[in-house]
Amino acid sequence: STDTVVASATIASAIAPPAHRFFALDPREFNEAVADWKWPHFRCDQVRQWVYQKAVGDPQQMTNLSKLDRERLAQRVAFARSSIVQHQVSEDGTQKFLFEWNDDGKSANAETVMIPDNNRRTACVSSQVGCPVGCKFCASGVNGVKGNLTADQIVEQVFRLNEALRSEESRVTNIVFMGMGEPMANYANVMKAVRILHDPTCFNIGARKITISTVGVPTKIRELAEEELPLNLALSLHAPNEELRRELIPWAEHFALEDILDACRYYFDQTGREITLEYILLAGVNDQPEHARELSLLCKTLRANVNLIRYNEVEPLPFKRPVAQDVLTFQGVLRANGINAHVRKSRGRDIDAACGQLRRKQEGAIDG
Ligand code: SF4
C-alpha cells in the first residue's frame, strides 16, 4: 500500500541521501517525480515559486506547504548542496564565491562571480573544475582540468547568487559562461543547465541574456546553432591570426581558426545572433595597431562585434597590463574600420575576480 511505501521510504531516507537533486531536474522531470508521490500538480508550482522566485531552498521555509509535506520534500529532494568555501565582496559591489560539493567522496568546486551594473545582475558561472584550455596568460590553465561540473552544480551557482541577492530584492538577470572551464567540452551538462535557466517556469532568463563563451570547437558551435535558442556566442579569439593564437592558447592547435570562423558564420546564419569576439589585450604581445588592423580584416569576414579586455596581471605569469593609450588606439583602429568595439569595464579587481585566481589561491593555502 501507499502507506508502507512512504514508511519504507522514510526509513531509507534516514540512511540514504534524498533520491532527487532538485537542480538536476527540468520542469517535466520534477513534475514526474511529484506525480509519483501522488501530490497534486499545484504543489510543483508552489515549490518552483519558492526556489526560483524567492530563492528559498529550504523546504522548512516553504510555509504554504503542510508540515508533513515539508518533511517529505526534505527527505526526497536535495536543494542547494554546496558549501560556500569563500565569499568576497568588492568595493564596486561585485561578489565572488567559491562553492564546493562532496558527492560520494568526490569533491568538485566552482567559482562564480556576480557583477552588478545598474539593474543588471550578471552571473559569471563555471562549467568545469579547472580548465583544459591552458591559456598562457591565465591562472586556471596552470593546473589543467579536473572534471566536469554536473548540470545541477551549474544551475546551483545561479541559485546561490539569487540567495545572496535576496537581501536587496533582486535576482540574476544575465548569465555568462565565462568562469572556469570550456563549456563546449562539457556540452550536455551545460545545455541541460541552460534549458533550466531559460525555462519560463524556472529561472526565466531570456536566451538573449545567456552567453556561451568558447575557445572554439567547430562541431559544438554548429550543434549549438541547431538548438533553436538564440543564445549569445562569444569566441575567445585573443589574437588576430592563427600563429599568435596558437602561442597564447595551446588548446587552439586542435582546431583550425578558419574552421572555427566558418562555424561562427553558420551560427549567425541559423540564429541571427552576431558573434562577440573576446580579445584580451596583452601589452606588447597582441595590442599594437598592426594587430588591430589584422583583426579588422578578420571581423569583416563575419558578423561580429569585439569586446576588448584589458589584462589583469597574474603572478607569476610574465604578461603585462597594457597602458590605457594603447587600448584606446586599438579600439580606434577597429572603429575606423567600421567594427563595433567596446572596452569591457574591469570589475572586482580588488577581489581577484579575473578567472581562476581565487581558486588557485585557495589551493595554494591548502597545499601550504
Ligand atoms: Fe580556460 Fe578561460 Fe583561463 Fe583560457 S582564459 S585557460 S579558456 S579559464
From TrEMBL:
One of its GO terms (biological process) is rRNA base methylation. Its EC number is 2.1.1.192. InterPro entries: Aldolase_TIM, Methyltransferase_A, RlmN_N, RNA_MTrfase_RlmN, rRNA_lsu_MTrfase_RlmN/Cfr, rSAM, rSAM_sf. The active site is at E111, C355. GO terms for molecular function: 4 iron, 4 sulfur cluster binding; metal ion binding; rRNA (adenine(2503)-C2-)-methyltransferase activity; rRNA binding; tRNA (adenine(37)-C2)-methyltransferase activity; tRNA binding. Binds 1 [4Fe-4S] cluster. The cluster is coordinated with 3 cysteines and an exchangeable S-adenosyl-L-methionine. S-adenosyl-L-methionine binds at G181, E182, S213, S236, L237, H238, N312. One of its GO terms (cellular component) is cytoplasm. Its cofactor is [4Fe-4S] cluster. [4Fe-4S] cluster binds at C131, C135, C138. Residues 117-349 form the Radical SAM core domain. Pfam families: Radical_SAM, RlmN_N. Keywords: 4Fe-4S, Cytoplasm, Disulfide bond, Iron, Iron-sulfur, Metal-binding, Methyltransferase, rRNA processing, S-adenosyl-L-methionine, Transferase, tRNA processing. It comes from the Bacteria. It is found in: Cytoplasm. SUPFAM superfamilies: Radical SAM enzymes. It is an enzyme of class 2 (transferase). It catalyses: adenosine(2503) in 23S rRNA + 2 reduced [2Fe-2S]-[ferredoxin] + 2 S-adenosyl-L-methionine = 2-methyladenosine(2503) in 23S rRNA + 5'-deoxyadenosine + L-methionine + 2 oxidized [2Fe-2S]-[ferredoxin] + S-adenosyl-L-homocysteine; adenosine(37) in tRNA + 2 reduced [2Fe-2S]-[ferredoxin] + 2 S-adenosyl-L-methionine = 2-methyladenosine(37) in tRNA + 5'-deoxyadenosine + L-methionine + 2 oxidized [2Fe-2S]-[ferredoxin] + S-adenosyl-L-homocysteine. Specifically methylates position 2 of adenine 2503 in 23S rRNA and position 2 of adenine 37 in tRNAs. Belongs to the radical SAM superfamily. RlmN family. Reaction proceeds by a ping-pong mechanism involving intermediate methylation of a conserved cysteine residue. This is Probable dual-specificity RNA methyltransferase RlmN.
